[in-house]
């Protein structure tokens, strides 16, 4: 939902039988209104408002994550019959453009303490979850964190929990690059799962490949609403707005009836660049230029 919550997208995915990772009451409402059964939803936010917990309880969304004692206290009060996934931090040996370790996930050294506390509170922990971060720089971040998850699983099993679910989170690329592709990630993930969570172990594996599903399915269409020529340091080209004469930067103008039309010509001055303005921006669809350091490649639609 965080990648693309367009109603047509979510309805299409819901009709395929896919599951959903929801992080708020609003997202829960959107998916439940599509008729998705609560068993297909993971409430994957380890920091939930009490009112949202109550909503989840009232709608039987009983699988959710936690990473802190305070969350266990809230869960015990508002939804004691919940099934919990312990969210651990991704392995710190690897980097991602957006690493969530500062916000979410417990360190592996804290896992036993939290599991013991959940046991004392008579809460049900059924598995482990993690997220390697958005746009990870190294595919092996998946394998090392899956290894860490197997250690957390063992801690839970030793305490008597029925550990049956592993949520390997997101981080799957939407666009393949030389160093990162879905196929490379899948190969690393499958090898790690075969090693640490073989099929004989009976663990249900879930993932959150939202970016992989949403990104390649869409092309953003915008309109060019203005343009101008400036120097590379973005100083406006002088003299071109004051007259309709020939200008090396802008090209020549000619009269067509009562209109003045400019004939587009190549820019001859290498210090000049032509800027185009579109009817969208960084506070809209292009927010990923800042948040994901995305490089946008425009093309003309005819």
Describe the structure.
- It is globular and about 75 Å long.
- Helix 5 runs parallel beside helix 6 and helix 6 (140-158) runs parallel beside helix 7 (182-196).
- It has a domain at 7-215: Alanine racemase (TIM Barrel), CATH 3.20.20.10.
- It starts with 6 loop residues before the first helix and ends in an 11-residue tail after the last helix.
- Strands 3-4-6-8-9 form a 5-stranded parallel β-sheet, covered by helices on one side. Strands 1-2 form a two-stranded parallel ribbon.
- The longest helix has 19 residues, at 140-158.
- It is α/β, with parallel strands linked by helices and 302 residues long.
- It has helices at residues 7-16, 25-32, 50-58, 69-78, 108-120, 140-158, 182-196, 210-214, 288-291; strands spanning 20-22, 41-43, 63-66, 83-87, 96-98, 124-129, 134-136, 165-167, 204-206, 224-231, 252-256, 259-263, 272-278.
- It comes from Biomphalaria glabrata.
- InterPro entries: 4Fe4S_Fe-S-bd (IPR017896), 4Fe4S_Fe_S_CS (IPR017900), Ala_racemase/Decarboxylase_C (IPR009006), De-COase2_N (IPR022644), Orn/DAP/Arg_de-COase (IPR000183), Orn_de-COase (IPR002433), PLP-binding_barrel (IPR029066).
The CATH class label of the domain at 7-215 is Alpha Beta
CATH level-two architecture of the domain at 7-215: Alpha-Beta Barrel
Helical content stands at 25-40%
Assign an overall shape.
globular
User: How can the largest sheet be summarized?
Assistant: 5 strands, parallel
- Measured distance between first and last alpha carbons: 31 Å
The SS-based structural class is: alpha/beta
Strand order of the largest sheet: 3-4-6-8-9
The oligomerization state is: single chain
Mean pLDDT: 85
Which regions contain 5 or more consecutive residues with pLDDT less than 50? 239-256
Total strands: the figure is 13
CATH topology of the domain at 7-215: TIM Barrel
What is the string of helix and strand elements? Answer: HEHEHEHEEHEEHEHEHEEEEH
CATH-level-4 superfamily name of the domain at 7-215:
Alanine racemase
What proportion of the residues form beta strands (DSSP E)? 15-25%
Query: Given the structure, what is the number of helices?
Result: 9
Radius of gyration, CA atoms, in whole angstroms: 26 Å
